[in-house]
Design goal:
Blueprint: E1 2-6, H1 10-21, E2 30-33, H2 37-47, E3 50-52, E4 62-67, H3 74-81, E5 89-92, H4 99-105, E6 112-116, E7 126-131, H5 138-148, E8 152-156, H6 162-171, H7 173-190, H8 195-216, H9 220-227, H10 233-243, H11 246-269
């Protein structure tokens, strides 16, 4: 089956790498539409895939098209593809773009899946939220799972509105973790630890805590309580965080990300006056 990627950025490259590495698709079956010449050369050198400036005759034979362009460029990309692509499954990985809008831009096509992967997909440790109308055939759902599952776990949602929350939690989630790592490493340097020790200690703590949470399967609050001895060092730190209402601010930040995803969908989905 021929697979076409519209856009050859980091997330597209991650998915291509996963497909090729896992044997889910051959390099010869993948075509990437990427306007940047240097990016096309990198794609060819790294994965052996064909990279072109604009969609050509191969688009008519595509079985799946992965829309990996920025949300603000999706309408234009869809308009270019609509007349040249045959009966393919379209998968969007752009935040905020709704199925109905993409379907309309594609000339009323019904085989459309909305997805939200996250950046750990770059190391094949991502998680991707997926949504499609109930009318989408099971075979198309399986195909979408296979393609996006090449870079990590997949999770289907019954309500499209849930994808806005997925954007805020798992899509933007790595940035929150990196923000905490950044603060932890800066605190370590302020306490006099050398660069290597501050970075290694902070990142090691994040990796170890994440592994522990996954393997134990316990509530994070319970795991935190196990580390927080009464009158100890961790309790002193947590008290400062609680006094600053860090958890409340964190939750407000995630809600702001969700609200922005909704706003993007509203704004980008409007037809020009």
């Amino acid at each position: 089956m021929k697979i076409i990627f519209i856009g050859g950025g980091n997330m597209a490259r991650a998915i291509i790498g996963g497909l090729v590495t896992k044997g889910a698709a051959a390099s010869s079956d993948i075509v990437v539409v990427e306007p940047d010449a240097s990016a096309r050369l990198r794609l060819l050198a790294e994965f052996g895939v064909r990279a072109v400036e604009a969609p050509g005759a191969e688009a008519a034979a595509a079985g799946a098209v992965i829309m990996a362009v920025k949300p603000q460029n999706m309408r234009e990309a869809a308009a270019v593809l609509a007349p040249v692509v045959g009966d393919a499954l379209f998968i969007s990985i752009a935040a905020g773009i709704r199925v109905a809008d993409l379907s309309r831009w594609l000339g009323g096509r019904a085989r459309v899946v909305r997805s939200m992967p996250n950046t750990p997909a770059l190391v094949h440790a991502g998680i991707t939220g997926l949504y499609a109308p109930a009318t989408l055939p099971a075979s198309d759902r399986q195909l979408a799972e296979t393609l996006l599952g090449s870079v990590g776990a997949t999770l289907w949602f019954d309500n499209e509105a849930d994808l806005d929350a997925v954007v805020a939690v798992s899509g933007s989630g790595p940035a929150y973790v990196f923000y905490a790592m950044e603060a932890l490493e800066e605190a370590a340097r302020n306490l006099g630890l050398a660069q290597g020790a501050s970075g290694g200690g902070g990142r090691g703590a994040v990796v170890g805590a994440t592994k522990l949470a996954i393997e134990r399967g316990e509530d994070p609050a319970a795991l935190r309580a196990q580390v927080t001895s009464k009158g100890g060092t961790t309790e002193a730190a947590v008290k400062v965080l609680e006094q600053a209402a860090v958890k409340a601010h964190f939750m407000a930040a995630v809600k702001a990300a969700r609200d922005r995803s909704v706003e993007l969908g509203d704004a980008l989905g409007k037809d020009p006056a």
